[in-house]
Amino acid sequence: MRVYSEFTATDVAAAAGVAVPTVYKLYGNKRALLAAVADAWGRQFPLRTLDVPRDPPAAISWWSTLARKQWETGLDIGLIYAGAVASEPDARADLEPLLAMREQAIRLVSEALRPRLKAGLTDDDAIAIISALTIS
After folding, report:
1. pLDDT exceeds cutoff 80 at 1
2. Cβ neighbours for 129, distance < 8 A, ≥ 6 positions apart
3. Do residues 108 and 54 make contact, with C-beta atoms less than 8 angstroms apart?
4. CA distance 116 to 136
5. With bands split at pLDDT 50, 70 and 90, how would you rate the model's confidence at 22?
6. How far apart (Å, rounded) are the C-alpha atoms in residues 69 and 1?
7. Positive or negative torsion for Cα 50, 53, 59, 63
8. Do the Cβ atoms of 109 and 130 come closer than 8 Å?
């Protein structure tokens, strides 16, 4: 697998079957193209507060299904972003909205779990556990 820094607009254009100027006209640069891909991927997972079940087992099931779908469909995007951040550290800012949405979902699930938390565990503990279990 090639890394982000090795790809050029010519590579993208060839893979898409378009002319190089088309890539530049539509996206401007490689980072903007990656941001558009990540944005399109993220729209598959709209998060509405009402989506998260209030029943603790149902909330865990909801989150595990969502997290699995995200990993199955987004692993390549994550790997590309890792390479992008290595070569362009400010590229992480493009990923922040998706990471914030994920954090919000984990927080909502932890709130649903609150009635079943073992004595002494806090919401922050639940958030840390959920994050660790879903490889944040």
Report:
1. no
2. none
3. no
4. 23
5. very high
6. 22
7. negative
8. yes
pLDDT in tens, 68-112: 888 888 888 888 888 888 888 888 888 888 888 888 889 999 999
pTM: 0.74
Query: Rounded to an integer, what is the distance from CA 59 to the centroid of its chain?
Result: 19
- At a CB cut-off of 8 Å and minimum separation 6, what does 22 contact? 13, 16
Q: Tokens for 39?
A: 């944005």
Of 23, 32, 48, 18, give the one whose Cα is nearest residue 93. Answer: 32
Q: Is there a contact between 34 and 91 (Cβ–Cβ < 8 Å)?
A: yes
Is residue 7 packed enough to be buried (19+ CB in 10 Å), middle (13-18) or exposed (0-12)?
middle
Do 109 and 56 contact (CB within 8 A), yes or no?
Answer: no
Q: Dihedral, CA atoms, 59, 135, 43, 14, nearest 10 degrees?
A: -160
